[in-house]
Design brief:
With 274 residues, the chain is α+β, with helices and mostly antiparallel strands. The chain has seven helices and 14 strands. The N and C termini lie far apart (39 Å).
Length: 274
């Protein structure tokens, strides 16, 4: 895909979303097979982060499905980024961005709080997003500019953020959140912790179960792109320290800045830590 290639239409997004959900669900089934296999091996990537057979199988399944669905749109995945040269992808205006297993540590620690993330990026913005939690069997999905949905127990519902913010303020955090998040939470007038792993934390904000998810540690584009579409479609935002929406400009590392997922952008949230 080159910068001069045609930008997909809204009709394309409508046609693709059910297929992307199917791809996420199929990957989720493969992940569950490994999750229920106690002798399956855990390896480490070059940077020391864990990777499992589940990551690899889900990645292969999703990339195959997306390539069949849209042969001319490339796929950038956490599992294939090392073989996708920056010199090749830096000028892509349209591409899929995938985390086949977001929350590998949650997977390893068996918290059930991991998910599959699939997003379509157009001109540095996520425009279609699917987040699927295989163990919880919950799917969040949205197309930019349209309502966000949650599918749970075979029921589909439109979701919205919780407005206005009410005390105690519900803060979505992982079980490994650090001192910066604790300081942020202490700066709130009154708060209550909602534990969750992976991009599912952002989805809790989107559906109003949590008010804010502060992230003051390293994340990559594939960790946030899919959930950003869902959050924004539900009425919230994902913002950096300057209050700007996260963008997906190609870079060698694809790292995000610190960010907050907020249901109410007008609320006087505490400042980002230095």
């Amino acid at each position: 895909m080159t910068p001069s290639a045609a930008i997909p239409s809204k009709n394309d997004y409508q046609a693709w979303l059910p297929e992307v959900c199917k791809a996420a669900h199929h990957a989720g089934k493969l992940i569950l097979e490994i999750y229920r296999c106690p002798e399956c091996k855990i390896e480490k990537k070059a940077d020391g982060s864990p990777v499992t057979l589940a990551d690899k199988m889900a990645d292969e399944s999703i990339r195959l499905a997306l390539t069949k669905l849209t042969p001319n749109i490339p796929v950038v995945s956490e599992e294939n980024i090392d073989s996708t040269l920056f010199s090749e992808r830096q000028n892509w205006s349209v591409y899929w961005l995938v985390d086949p297993l977001d929350g590998t540590k949650e997977f390893i620690e068996r918290t059930d709080e991991f998910c599959v993330n699939i997003a379509l990026i157009v001109n540095q913005q996520p425009v279609l997003g699917v987040v699927y939690g295989p163990v919880l069997d919950v799917t969040y999905c949205a197309i930019k500019g349209q309502a966000a949905s949650k599918v749970y127990q075979n029921k589909t519902q439109t979701i919205q953020v919780r407005l206005p913010v009410r005390e105690p303020i519900k803060v979505a955090v992982s079980r490994r959140h650090g001192t910066k998040v604790k300081a942020f939470q202490a700066a709130l007038p009154a708060s209550e912790t909602v534990h969750m792993g992976s991009a599912l934390k952002s989805c809790l904000v989107a559906e109003g179960v949590a008010d804010v998810y502060p992230r003051f540690g390293p994340t990559s584009h594939w960790d946030t792109a899919a959930s950003q579409v869902i959050v924004e479609s539900a009425g919230g935002r994902i913002v950096d320290a300057q209050g700007r929406d996260l963008r997906y400009q190609p870079s060698p590392s694809l790292l995000n800045p610190y960010f907050m997922v907020v249901g109410d952008p007008q609320f006087a949230w505490p400042a980002f830590p230095g």
